Amino acid sequence: MNQPRIVTRKRNEMLDAGKTFACLAVVLIHCAFPGKIGILFRTLSKFAVPFFFAISGYYNKGKVIKKIKHIGKICVSAELFYLIFDWFIGIFESNSIIIDSFQYGDLTLGTIFRTIVFNAPFTRPHLWFLYALLYCYLMSVGMRRINNKIKLIFSLTLIILFTITSEFAGVLGINNRLDIKLPTGEIAGSYIYNLFLLRAYPFFAFG
What is the mean pLDDT of the chain? Predict the structure, then answer.
């Protein structure tokens, strides 16, 4: 029986160079430079995160399930690392016994809901990228049979929504938060532009 041919892409050195500049841009985004210089740096550096998602989409050829499992393992490992790290920090800061230092308060329906629906990490905000990338790969599997023209229109619409909610919502008086009240009374919310569907997937798809 003939096996399906797996299409892969060779490493692109130009894209590797672009990732170097994008890494520097990510650093600049998180540096609080004062005044107009800070605004300029943050504005010019906004290309970095969409660029990384586009690169991932560019190489999204074959072995997608393997990539999903790989990123899923990284997410679980990173969350466990920070949970254990915070656990030991709690022990040293409170001088309590190990059992008493373990706090279950952060593991609530609200945090679980935010992780599943808003791809918000349990422990550290910067893990958001991994969750968003994982969701992009999962969505790419579900979108395989969709017509390319429809996917193009869909992705363009998402980019427009992302731009409106992230850049013009305040000026236009548009509410750019999504808050959902859970049965426990907790409010699980996120800025709409932080949802992977707007901030990650369309750039991934265009890649």
Answer: 82
pLDDT at 155: 92
Nearest CA-CA partner of 139 in 80, 77, 195: 195
Ranges in the chain, pLDDT < 70: 1-11, 93-107
| The two three-digit tokens of residue 2, written as one number | 């003939």
Q: What's the per-residue H, E or C state across the chain?
A: CCCCCCCCCCCCHHHHHHHHHHHHHHHHHCCCCCHHHHHHHHHHHHHHHHHHHHHHHHCCCCCHHHHHHHHHHHHHHHHHHHHHHHHHHHHHHHCCCHHHHCCCCCCCHHHHHHHHHHCCCCCCHHHHHHHHHHHHHHHHHHCCCCCHHHHHHHHHHHHHHHHHHHHHHHHHCCCCEEEEECCCCCEEEEEHHHCHHHHCHHHHHHC
- How far is it, in rounded angstroms, from Cα 61 to Cα 57? 8
Q: For residue 132, what are its two tokens? A: 């968003």
Q: From CA 94, how far away is CA 100, in angstroms rounded?
A: 10
Strand partners, 66: none
Q: In the beta sheet, which residues pair with residue 190?
A: 178
The model's pLDDT over 119-172, given as tens digits with 9 standing for 90+, comes to 888 888 888 999 999 999 999 988 888 888 998 999 999 999 999 998 888 788
The residue type found at 152 is L
Q: What is the pTM of this model?
A: 0.80
CA 74, chain centre distance (Å)? 13
